[in-house]
Amino acid sequence: MNVKRRVWEILDVAKPGDIPSRVFELFIITLIFLNVVAVTIGSVRLIEERYETFLYRFEVFSVIVFCVEYVARVWSCVSHKEYSNSITGRLRFMVKPMSMIDLLAVLPFFLTFVHTDLRFIRALRLFRIFRVAKVGRYSTSVRLFGRVFKDSKEELVITFMVMILLIIMSSSFMYFAENEAQPDKFPDIPTTMWWSVVTLTTVGYGDVYPVTTLGKFFAAIVSIMGIGMFALPTGILGANFVQEIQKQKSKKRVCSHCGAEIE
How far apart are CA 96 and CA 87, in angstroms? Predict the structure, then answer.
């Protein structure tokens, strides 16, 4: 058997009945979540000081595993027809989003050896949380969401542009309505955009609000439009999500005798 092809099969999403691939998948997913836990509790200074040695050793072990995985993927990817060229194929594989995430999963560890401000190093360690994004390579559900967002990108872009337009228009109206009454809260249109954002997103912190009759009228309209703006992308994603699930179900083969799914 071709070694590169077998390594690629093991590192790729587990196929039905491929036990080594399934074991590797479960091991990596478990390691990723343990890393997230380590980063989270490591941000507590008392825990970090008490278990610093253990957390560092676990970090080194994780980085070694992720580095070996990344190198093995780059080495074996040429067995896939899409990356068959030994040079350009590997380069094309390395610039793929998931490959970049694999690289980001280990890069912060090596950057901490750079002599610089310790506060920067401490902040840089938090980027290890990006390792949770590696789960997307192994999770069917995460890949499903990715396809849904990809299929909805045009509608979402239009919705985003409408949202930007509404923010600009509502900020302008509110500025002219409230600037004279509250020059400290609505001094200019860019500052007023904060109020527009928190109102259209229905957050409404209450730190900035209108006091004039005209301002309250505009605020009521913007608040109602904000509810609609949330419903629009939700409906788009929901419809495409149902379509994607139905598409997946239609691809599954079922035995005509027992009704069981055929792998």
Answer: 15
- The pTM for the full model equals 0.59
The domain 3-138 is placed in CATH, from the list 3.20.20.140, 2.102.10.10, 3.90.226.10, 1.20.120.350, at: 1.20.120.350
The predicted-structure confidence for 163-187, as pLDDT tens digits, reads as follows: 899 899 999 999 999 999 999 989 9
Give the Cα separation of 97 and 238 in Å (integer). 25
Per DSSP, 162 falls in state: H
Architecture of domain 153-262: Orthogonal Bundle (1.10)
SS3 percent helix, strand, coil of the chain, rounded to 5, is: 75, 0, 20
Element (H, E) at 206: none
Structure-model confidence comparison of residues 240 and 262, the more confident one: 240
What are the Cα distances from residue 95, in Å, to 32, 71, 132, 161, 235? Answer: 22, 14, 19, 29, 33
